[in-house]
Amino acid sequence: MRSRLLRARESFWFLPSVFGAVAVLLALALVGVDRYLVSIGGDSIPLLEDLSPAGARGVLSAIGGTMLGVAATSFSITISVLATTSSAYGPRLVRNFMADRGNQIVLAVLTSTFLYALVVLRSVHAEDDSRVAFVPIIAVSTSVLLAVADVAVLVYFIHHIAMSVQVTTLQDRVLADLEAAIDLIRPEQGDDADGDARSDAAGDARARRAVTHVVRASGTGYVSAIHLEGLVADAVSRGAVHRVVAVTGDHVVPGDPLVEVIGGGKTREDEAGERDDAVRAAFTTQSARTPHQDLRYAVQQVVEIGVRGLASGTNDPYTAVGALHALSGPLRTLCLRPNPVTDVRRGEGGEPRVEIRWPAPEVLIGNVFQAVRSYGTEHVLVMHATLDLADRLASVVDARVRAALRDDVRALEASYVRTDPEEIDAAPLRRRFAALDARLAPDVARP
Q: What is the pLDDT of residues 427-444, one digit of tens each?
């Protein structure tokens, strides 16, 4: 359910649909109020000017038609920005614009105003032989107030869309996704810190136990979310331990293993099928990756912004420098959080029930350095920014991440040397590489 709500939030139809339904209900309610006031003879309302049926229709027609045209123009501008973003920063970052709450609200307000005016318009009628004239004064006056609000929304939209195409705005959005993923997967304080600290040894002991059953995927797609609470409940009912094989971000096809069931004994074939379906229901698969529970993809989005700036047609190393500087904060946070090799989720009695291996910090840091080795070694500014990142991480990493970071720095130096740089650029970098290598040596105590 959470995954479906997140997908709905990132669509252009959800908020306009909600606002449209509210607008229709509001129009019907206000027209009903107007009818009630007419029936009791209280239709002479202070501060509201009486309108003829023709005048009311003119006002509502003007508001409804104008707002629909403005909504269409706003939508066209948004699509144009999406196309520009896709070509400049990569098609995977278009999701951030679709998920932008400001754009969704603007489209929702404009289209709902049109629907409101349309519903009120149908209730206005002139006097004839069969009925008396009726003009819903309150409903028509409310449509004027909505039109005034729409003008303010339009001004906001122009400002917002101009800000949203700036690389810093886009970078802030993807960083927010990364920080949210870190808080979700690696919280600052787990439910059972001592249990997490012992999880590596406990996981090794359970790894030696025989796998009694393997739950396999039945569809194709990327694992976008895993409902760990559901897996814990299923493991408790089986009296087993679930070892998650396919983590978020992995691509699966029918037959690929999702979960290895350890212990619990054997079950009948029909019961096993039902239980397997319950386990599969805990996995949400989509045709594209999302950063909500996928640390690798969340980091990849920030890296992609920088890499796109290094393309030959763009030649903008400052974008890459900004992306590397921005990554230092979330990666430091991740390194400071508890990072056991195996994350263990426990049942109500405290017994281990689900084991999952999230991407380790050294893997995510290695992905960043790999991108720089592939695309950024010819840019001196990018090299210095990468070493700035390594310097900031060196003071917070543990021994395991320290060793991997040292290997990444050495590999980066080797790649840089192969580019045959100018001595004036290479000399300062050589000194920085040497100082960083000494700082990351195993015998250097962590500050």
A: 999 999 999 999 998 865
Place 270 in a pLDDT band, splitting at 50, 70 and 90.
very low
In 3D space, the residue among 50, 28, 354, 349 whose CA is nearest the CA of residue 215 turns out to be 354
Nearest to 81 by CA among 98, 67, 64: 98
The tokens describing 253, both together, are: 């096809």
Tokens encoding 390: 């390594």
State the sign of the Cα–Cα–Cα–Cα dihedral 431, 401, 228, 257.
positive
Determine the length of the chain. 447
Tell whether 394 and 430 lie within a shared domain: yes
Distance CA 32, CA 44 (A): 16
Question: What's the pLDDT band for 116 if we cut at 50, 70, 90?
Answer: very high
pLDDT band of residue 193 (cuts 50, 70, 90) is very low
Question: Residue 327 above 80 pLDDT?
Answer: yes
* Residue at a domain's end among 342, 359, 376: 359
Spatial contact of 188 and 105, defined as CB atoms under 8 Å apart? no
CATH number of the CATH domain containing 249: 3.90.1170.30
pLDDT tens for 138-152 read 899 899 999 999 999
Residue 137 lies in a domain: yes
Residues 213 and 154 in one domain: no
Is the domain of 158 the same as that of 230? no
Query: Which residues, in sequence order, are CB contacts of 83 under 8 Å at separation 6+?
Result: none
Q: Phi-psi region for residue 421, left (φ > 0), alpha (ψ -120 to 50) or beta?
A: beta
Q: What is the pTM of this model?
A: 0.77
Q: What's residue 267's pLDDT?
A: 54
Within 10 angstroms of residue 148's Cβ, the number of other Cβ atoms is 9
Our count of domains for the chain comes to 3
438 within some domain: yes
Written as six digits, the tokens of 87 are: 């070509």
Residue 178 lies in a domain: no
Looking at the fold, whether 299 and 243 belong to one and the same domain comes out as yes
Q: Are residues 146 and 218 in the same domain?
A: no
Co-location of 335 and 392 in the same domain: no
Which pLDDT score, from 0 to 100, does residue 199 have? 46
The answer as to whether 113 is a domain residue is yes
Q: Over the stretch 22-73, which tens digit does the pLDDT of each residue have?
A: 999 999 999 998 888 878 776 666 655 667 888 889 999 999 999 989 988 8
The residue assigned the tokens 């396919």 is 246
Residues 226 and 299 in one domain: yes
Distance CA 343, CA 346 (A): 10
Q: What is the dihedral of CA 163, 154, 16, 298, to 10 degrees?
A: 0
Domain span including residue 309? 199-359
Which tokens is 208 given? Answer: 């030696």
